Amino acid sequence: MGVLEGALTYANLLALLALGLTLTYITTGVPNFAHGSFAVIGSYLAYTLYVGLGLNPYLALIPAPITGGLFGIAVYLLTLKPLIRKGASVDMLMMATLAVDIILYGLLGAYSDVISSAFKRNASKFVFTNADFAVSGIPGRLVVSSLLVVATLVALYILLYRTKFGTALRASMENPALAEAMGIDVERTRLFSWFLAAALAGMVGAVLPFLQETVPGTGGFIIVSVFAASIVGGLKNISGGLIGGYIIGLSESLVTFGLSDVLGTGILVYGKVVSLMIMIAVLLLMPEGITGTKVWRRLMR
């Protein structure tokens, strides 16, 4: 149960992260390398509430999405929008997000030093396992992460299919030029997508330390799996991030654990290799991801 529970929790969190990454890619065409660091911002906010105010880290699920979303808006407005206006290529925009990720890594490292000094607690690495709860023997991290997935899907469905703004957002994702010609404020939808994606990352970050040790560089480590999940699911379909998240999350955890019985526990540190191998296989067989295949399109009819 312990291994399966951890795998499901990880898959839930990875699916939410991949969902956000896919959303920003669809709306702006930019692979965001800083997406993982947005999550770590949420983690450090939760840690601050935990050691600074003595609050349960789960309470960070309220401010973490807002904080992450604001960082997403700032990155888009201060970095990507000016470059897009100047006609920057996708490669340049991608490198810009990589530069932002490095900057955020440095800022998180500096912040961890400040927190360590202020509260006399080591903030360079931390976990929340001792602060977790259980429901009928089921760890709170699995319960909370599962509820977050369900709540996110319901909210997205209502937003995209039950509101006028959602209709405009879908139109902007499908054909930005046509949407703009019809009077839709495409720039507004892009800004919202960056807020929403970073908000989802911040929310995930508040739960992530309940599952694994978190450090300032965790974002750079987890982004490998996030990209793999988005690519496997299909970068041109929002549901692809969710599907890819569960495929990569469960495979990375369960396959690595299974191999550890044969090759020893040392193999556990190479879990990302599983993600990359699956990603390469999907790219060779299904270049547009699972949601880009004819079989998937027929199922969705």
Automatic annotation (TrEMBL):
Which InterPro entries does this entry report, sorted A to Z? ABC_transp_permease (IPR001851), BCAA_transport_permease (IPR052157)
Q: Keyword Transport: yes or no?
A: yes
UniProt-listed GO biological process terms: amino acid transport
Could you cite one Gene Ontology molecular function of this protein?
A: transmembrane transporter activity
Q: Which residues cross the membrane?
A: 6-26, 58-80, 92-111, 142-160, 191-211, 217-235, 247-270
The answer to whether UniProt assigns keyword ATP-binding to this entry is yes
Which keywords are on file for this protein?
Amino-acid transport, ATP-binding, Cell membrane, Membrane, Nucleotide-binding, Transmembrane, Transmembrane helix, Transport
Q: What membrane topology term does the record carry?
A: Multi-pass membrane protein
* CC annotations in GO: plasma membrane
Q: Where in the cell is it found?
A: Cell membrane
- Output the superkingdom of the source species: Archaea
Would you identify the family this protein belongs to, as annotated? Belongs to the binding-protein-dependent transport system permease family. LivHM subfamily.
Q: What is this protein called?
A: Hypothetical branched-chain amino acid transport ATP-binding protein livH
